[in-house]
Structure formats: structure tokens, C-alpha cells
């Protein structure tokens, strides 16, 4: 299959880099991040504050910090 924009390169497959189906935690985090980006801002401090305000905590159950958020995004490959 070719793409009229890229010529002979094939279309990218949605979620082609996934190694597994997202967990319920990952779905919740993604949905909450979308809401935070829309309503609160894109700065790291805004994101951490928005997640904590919505009671979506880090995997260990603790409130987010900038460091824990960075580490989790790294772990998730984001």
C-alpha cells in the first residue's frame, strides 16, 4: 500500500510500536493526561498538578512528582 503524501512508503500502522494491549491503568492515565493537556496546560508542573488534583496517582499509589512522572513516561516509552 502506498501513500500519496510519502510516495512509495507504506502507511504507518496504528499502534505499530505496541508490545501489549494497554492496561486499565494505562488507559486511565492516557485519558486523564488528555484532559489535563486540554484544561490545565502542557508544562510538566501543570501536568503533575492536574494528575494529582484528579487523584490519578503514580503506579505505587503516591502522588506524582515531576521526577516520578518523567520516570513513568520513560518506562512506558512515551
Counting helices, strands and paired strands, the structural category is: mainly alpha
The number of strands is 0
Number of helices: 3
Largest sheet: none
- Distance separating the two termini: 28 Å
The SSE order reads HHH
What share of residues is helical?
40-55%
* Beta-strand share of residues: under 5%
Mean pLDDT over all positions? 86
- As residue ranges, the low-confidence spans are none
What form results from the Cα inertia axes? globular
Radius of gyration: 16 Å
SSE layout:
Elements: H1 24-39, H2 44-53, H3 66-76
Helix pairs in contact: 1-2
What this model shows, in words?
This protein is mainly alpha-helical and 78 residues long. Helices cover 47% and strands 0% of the residues. The chain has helices spanning 24-39, 44-53, 66-76. α1 crosses α2. The longest helix has 16 residues, at 24-39. It is globular, with a radius of gyration of 16 Å. The two termini are 28 Å apart. The model has no long low-confidence stretch (mean pLDDT 86).
Keywords, separated by commas or semicolons:
3 helices, 47% helix, mainly alpha, 78 residues
Amino acid at each position: 500500500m502506498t501513500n500519496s503524501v510519502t510516495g512509495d512508503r507504506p502507511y504507518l500502522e496504528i499502534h505499530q510500536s505496541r508490545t501489549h494491549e494497554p492496561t486499565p491503568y494505562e488507559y486511565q492515565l492516557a485519558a486523564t493526561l488528555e484532559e489535563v493537556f486540554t484544561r490545565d496546560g502542557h508544562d510538566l508542573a501543570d501536568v503533575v498538578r492536574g494528575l494529582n488534583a484528579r487523584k490519578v496517582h503514580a503506579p505505587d499509589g503516591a502522588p506524582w512528582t515531576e521526577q516520578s512522572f518523567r520516570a513513568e513516561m520513560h518506562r512506558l516509552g512515551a
